[in-house]
Amino acid sequence: MNNPLLPDRHPDPDFFVCDVLDAAPKGDIGSMEHPIFSLSTKPDLRPRRYEHRGIVVEIKPSSDGLATVHDRDILIFCISQIIRGMNEGREVSQLVRFQAADLLRATNRETSGRGYQLLKSALERLAGTRISTNIVTGGEETFETFGLVERAKVVRETREGRMHEVEVKLSDWVFNAIKAQEVLTLSRDYFRLRKPLERRLYELARKHCGHQPEWKIGLSLLHRKCGSGSKSYEFKRLVGAIIAEDVEHSHMPDYSVRFCEDEKHVIFRSRGTVAHVETDEFNIPPLDADVYETARALAPGWDVRVIEAEWRAWLTEQPRNAEAAFLGFCRKWYERRGAP
Predict the structure, then answer these.
(1) In this structure, which long-range contacts are made by residues 144-152, counting pairs with CB atoms below 8 Å and at least 24 apart in sequence?
(2) Contacts (Cβ under 8 Å, ≥6 apart) of 293
(3) Angle of CA points 310, 311, 314, to nearest 5°
(4) Given this model, what pLDDT does residue 158 score?
(5) Tell me, what's the pLDDT at 137?
């Protein structure tokens, strides 16, 4: 049996886009835990409703079909860029502008004409899929219907018809999750998983197993949480095929996946490859005294040492410029909270 992972299509990224590609992939927790995206590789025109422990999610497709697990790559890329900007103390917004080629490389996609056409189709499905839910993001419970992407447009297009620069406006729901740091770092090998169901299993393991040694779930509940439209026996067969490949190749990132003895439960075990987010790992040196003076001006009335402690606990990546990142955090702190 051949390696189930897709080849690494861009092992030697262009020096000038390394900063973009180095941004750690991030997924929002809400759509990792609940079946927002379709697993189908064909246009999925079925409206869906999912309920579990008080959470209700209704997903309605456009004429282009539901957004798919592979379309989610665009959201992951946008979230990753915004988080990178926040960690570096830059101003960020729901509007993300990027080079189409950068996204294709960062998500291990083809940079051929077909790759650009698939990207355009994915943007259309993301903008067209509408969601109604009571999932809380950033402390806000949303009941209105919204899209994961409010709008998307091609800012420039080459003479050959390929997208050059793309602009995406994320929904309030997704942006609230980003601002509240309700995101998890994903393995870069996530983009090398071929099957939509493999990606969905990884997302669930990343959310529910996390740093624990293992996580067990009943096959019927897993079926529902994956959002699979397959019959129960077919779903079990599909999961079994992934397990067989993982037994032989250990290809699933961060977690192994196996059937329990009764074959009515699936168990995910950590491979110990998910890094713990601890500030000490970032090796951030003490800040200079003049930085604190600037911080006091940005957040008047606040104890900047308290803000610093919150900032260090909040970080999810090593900031390139720690002082600029801290001052950006102070600015946002005061904007949101005002004077103490």
Answers:
(1) 145/60, 146/171, 146/172, 146/173, 147/171, 148/31, 148/36, 148/67, 148/75, 148/173, 148/174, 149/74, 149/75, 149/123, 150/94, 151/127, 152/123, 152/124, 152/126, 152/127
(2) none
(3) 85
(4) 80
(5) 66
Q: How far is CA 220 from CA 30, 224, 231, 269, in A?
A: 21, 7, 11, 19
Question: Which pLDDT tens digit goes with each residue over 46-82?
Answer: 999 988 777 888 999 999 999 999 999 999 999 998 9
Residue with tokens 């079990």: 236
DSSP H or E stretch at residue 106 = helix 100-106
The residue that leads in pLDDT, 69 or 135, is: 69
- ∠ CA 131-135-139, nearest 5°, is 125
Look at residue 15 in the predicted model and tell me its pLDDT.
37
The owner of tokens 């997208």 is 163
179 close to 138: Cβ distance less than 8 angstroms: yes
The continuous run of DSSP H or E covering 52 comes out as: strand 48-52
Number of Cβ within 10 Å of residue 173's Cβ equals 23
Q: Which two tokens stand for residue 46?
A: 């079925």
Q: What's residue 127's pLDDT? A: 93
* 192 vs 8: CA distance, rounded Å: 7
Q: Identify the helix (H) or strand (E) that includes residue 255.
A: strand 255-259
What is residue 204's three-state secondary structure?
Answer: helix
Look up residue 255 and give its two tokens.
Answer: 């977690």
User: Which of the given ranges, 44-53, 185-194, 322-331, has the highest pLDDT on average?
Assistant: 185-194
Q: pTM of the prediction?
A: 0.79
| Cα distance between residue 121 and residue 125, in whole Å | 6
CA 40/CA 197 separation, integer angstroms: 9
| Mean pLDDT, rounded, of the chain | 86
pLDDT band at 1 (very low <50, low <70, confident <90, very high): low
